[in-house]
Amino acid sequence: MDLTWNLDALYTSFNSEKFKGDMELLNKHIENLNDWSAKNMKDTNNATSKIQEFLNLYNEYKSVYCCLYSYAELTSCSDNSNMEAMNVLDDIEYKNSLVIDSFVKFNKWLISLNNIDELIDTSPTLIEYRFYLKELILQSKYLLNENEELLIAKMQSTGSKAWQRLYMELTSTILVDIDIEGESKKVALSELRNMAYKKDEFLRKTAYYAEEEVCKRISKASAACLNGISGEALTIYDMRGYKSPLEKVLMVSRMDYETLNVMLSAIKESLPIFHEYYHKKAEGLGHKVCLPFYDIFAPMGDANTKISYSDARDLIVSSFRIFSQELADFAKKVFDSRWIDAEPRTGKGNYGLTVDIFPIEESRIIANFTGEYCDVGVLAHEIGHAYHSYCLRNEKMLNTDYPTPIAETASIFCETIVNNALLNILPTNEGFSILEKSISDAGYYIVDFYARYIFENKLFERRKLGQLSVEELNELMLNCMEEAYGDSIDTETIHPYMWMNKVGYYLSGNEFLNFPYSFGVLFSKGLYAEYIKNGEAFVSQYNNFLSATSKNNIVDSAKIIDIDVHSIEFWRNALNLIQKDIEVFVSGV
Hints:
Layout: H1 17-40, H2 47-78, H3 83-97, H4 100-111, H5 116-121, H6 124-128, H7 130-140, H8 146-156, H9 160-173, E1 175-180, E2 183-188, H10 189-194, H11 201-217, H12 219-240, H13 245-252, H14 257-284, E3 291-292, H15 309-323, H16 325-336, E4 340-341, E5 353-357, E6 362-366, H17 373-390, H18 404-425, H19 428-463, H20 470-485, E7 489-490, H21 515-534, H22 537-548, H23 554-559, H24 568-588
Parallel strand pairs: 3-7, 4-6
Antiparallel strand pairs: 1-2, 5-6
Enzyme class: hydrolase
Pfam families: Peptidase_M3, Peptidase_M3_N
Keywords: Hydrolase, Metal-binding, Metalloprotease, Protease, Zinc
């Protein structure tokens, strides 16, 4: 099977007539949107018609923009040295800034209407956009005037987004010499990090300290990137009236403080459970006291079987079929239509990513398939993202946005389906490895991300006082890691540059990409428990839940499947499922 994707449904190249035509069409949509806004936002006469016209124009613009941006982003992510793709991304982002003025005018005009609910109720079209419009009104109080928002958008292209691109280039192109089986090789940072999952302890340790060395080489530049991005975020969010970047993230995540605080309280309670796992893992790997950090992702058990890409496809499709035929058919389409770029190569980031392209009702997935069974779970995870967007295929472009915590729920739910199927079909030794990997992943998303959440909170507090040096960032990161991992990890082995190996810190406008993943793990555990309890009856309920996530906040979305996210018992019960896995692991070591 071909491990590279096919992007032809979008464009064949930046020089294709279709791409050039859509760039011209984008300019036309920008012109139409701006001309219309200048003429129609002067008064509130015929308000219902004006709202409908704006939404139609904005939908048309966003649809073309989505296709163009997705193609450039996908091309860039699959080859970070592709300067043409980066330049096109710059151009598209600049063009997007040209509609900021119209968007802000519409938002300001919208909140001037004192009868918005009555207007919505009189129009079937506006009823469809009720949630979207109410969200705009809620967020409008944090908008500056048109000129200020336009200035911010333009300056970000040479500010935080430029810092983001520099970080991406630094971490994806730097090479390091490492001895592998007696042969010196030059490998990328992503390849070093992949070695953390290898069976060879010497290789894991060698790669880990090589990563520390290469991080040290680019630490000053990375610190500049982090200071630039976080400093800009603080400035902009303060100007807009947010209490903190966290308040902004919770708002766009459609998540309230109560949900976050209850979940974090349950996580903090559960840390000793994970500490027990890490201590037992240390014992199983032959360490006397606690686990060296270079062994935190070390595979356990006797599993050494490789799996082909085609067999991985068949395994995912058959596992999904246990849940529903629709999910299985969708996964088969993903593979058969070559939506996945699974080939590992230099210049390609070491992460999984799904880009949803709603105008063509397709997605594209980036992964690195090396033939390990853990790669099967990664593929299932990303297909889960794509399935979520598939469930929203009948929505207009403006009604397809859903919050990150819920997005991670859909992906981890699919990953759980596959992992549980693997436990049932693999031999005991292979099954033990899958179980341990599942616990390891849960520990990463819960314990490690708890540390990173604490770090980001403290980073923003400290950044208010000025820029942080490499040494200060190192100390802050180590303190947060120690708080989360306790005495289960040999803290002397935690290299101090962990703030450099989490891409979320460097994604402009995407702060706190940590607790949403913890939410996703635990919420998906709760969902899976409901599936086990209710069987086939849960399938349609689950699809209805995914379809509703773009038009509801998290509290209301959860109610569709009878879950109260304000209840600490829900989070404790989800963590108890992980605890049961840990108990099985401990008894088997």
